[in-house]
Structures are given as structure tokens and as C-alpha cells.
Amino acid sequence: MSYASIIAFGSALFGGGMALATAFKARRSVPHWSFAAGMAALAAESLFSGLAANSALLETVAYWQGYTFLAMAFLPGFWLFFSLTYARGNYREFLARWQLVLAAAFIAPLVLALAFPDEIIIALGKPRGGEQLMLRLGFAGTGLHLLLLLSAVLVLMNLERTFRAAVGTMRWRIKFMVLGLGVLFAVRAYTSSQALLFHGGALSQQAVNSGALLVACLLMTRALFRAGHFEV
Q1: DSSP readout, 151-184?
Q2: I want to staple 16 with a disulfide (CB 3.0 to 4.6 A). Which of 43, 108, 162, 169 is the partner?
Q3: How many CB atoms lie within 10 A of CB 154?
């Protein structure tokens, strides 16, 4: 088992556990369910990435990579939704204001992933003299990374505004959540920008995403189990 698959499986286990814990412990509120859904999508993406990294045959790698991109298609909508509702008493106003952007964040990635699966990855293999597997993205794969990059910027912007507006005990309760998601989406913005620049890239780059998820989970666990966090 490679180090990339170990990191991916570890982050998938941690992320899936956080999704279940949030769904079980949280009151039935929109922000907490959107967080649980977003974490479940991240855990699934990391799981499929680990299965791809642990595969020997190119056909198997391509198979699991297809599911990795399908799971990634759920990230822009769920996390933009969460960033608009987390720790905001008037989140319905923000949802109404952002409804068109939210609709695009949910629908556009799924259209690319489901309607054009053959245009996500158009080539997979090792370059001459190289040891790492490289992906070559089609227009659907490039579009998915572009949408994730844009959504990552919007998520970071919304979380920064939420943290800046918070004062006193509220800021103390949410700071590790904001920091964890800040780390995660800053890394995702970087890796997606690299994929866009090179129309793909090394498969091992996905280990960076899994590592960022693992670090983010550690920070967010500190936030989720703080007294009073589920009443934010």
C-alpha cells in the first residue's frame, strides 16, 4: 500500500466519522446538515482517490478516478451552501441573495460529471522516463476544477466575513472551524489551479488534497466538540 493511499484512506475515515458525528449530534439545522453532506462528499472523494492510488492496472485507476471526480462534483454546492449559513442568524437572506450562484454550484458540476464522463479524463499513463502516473483532463475535468476553484474562493470569502463579524464567545467557538476549512480550501484552490494550468497533472497530487482534509479534520474536531458549538 502506497503512502498516498494510506493518507487517502485515513482522511476518508476521519472525514466520514465527522460527517456521521455531526449528523448524529447536531440539532436538525440547515448548517449542520450541509456540513455533514459536504464532509461525506470529501470522505467519498478521498476514499476513491485512495482506491485509485492502490490500484496496479491503468483500467482500475481510471475507473476509480471517475468516481473521484463524481464525488468532487458535489463539493462546490454543499460547501458554498455551508459557508452562507454557518454561524449566521439571518442566513435565509444570504441564501435568497445567492440563489442563482448556489443553483449553478449544485447543477453545473453534476452536469459535467454525469453528462460527459468520457471527457473528464482523456489520457492516463506515465510519461517517458517518468515514474508518476499523469492525468490528462478533457473539457469536463477542466470545468470541474474551474468550478471547484471558483467555489473555494467564495467559500473562503464567506468564512472570512463570518469570522470578521463574530465577536466575543462566538468568535472563540468558530475559530477552529474557520481555520480548518481555510486550510482545506486554500489547498484545494492551489491544486485545482495547478490542474488547470497543466490540463491535468500527477496523480500523486491528490495525496495533497487528502493530507489537507486530514489536517482540516483535526482542526474542525477541536471546534465541533467545544461546549456550545452546536448551538452556534
Answers
A1: HHHHHHHHHHHHHHH--HHHHHHHHHHHHHHHHH
A2: 43
A3: 19
CA 68, CA 206: separation in Å to the nearest integer?
Answer: 10
d(C-alpha 88, C-alpha 206), whole Å: 32
CA–CA separation, 214 vs 15, rounded Å?
A: 8
Contact residues for 3 (Cβ-Cβ < 8 A; gap 6+): 207
Enumerate the β-bridge partners of residue 123: 136
Question: What Cα–Cα distance (Å) separates residue 87 from each residue in 31, 41, 134, 146?
Answer: 8, 21, 41, 27
Distance CA 137, CA 196 (A): 9
Angle between helices 3-25 and 30-53 (to 10 degrees): 160
Dig out the grid coordinates for 154 from the structure: 467564495
**Number of C-beta neighbours around residue 182 at 10 A:** 17
For the whole model, what pTM was predicted? 0.93
* 134, β-bridge pairs: 125, 202
Task: Give the Cα-Cα-Cα angle 92, 95, 101 (nearest 5 degrees).
Answer: 175
Residues 194-208 have pLDDT tens digits of 999 999 988 888 999
Helices (H), 54-138: 58-72, 75-85, 91-97, 99-115
Residues 6+ apart with CB under 8 A from 215: 180, 183, 184
Instruction: Give per-residue pLDDT as tens, 74-115.
Output: 999 999 999 999 987 788 898 999 999 999 999 999 999 999
Nearest to 72 by CA among 137, 20, 126, 21: 137
Q: Which of 109, 119, 108 is nearest to 66 (CA)?
A: 119
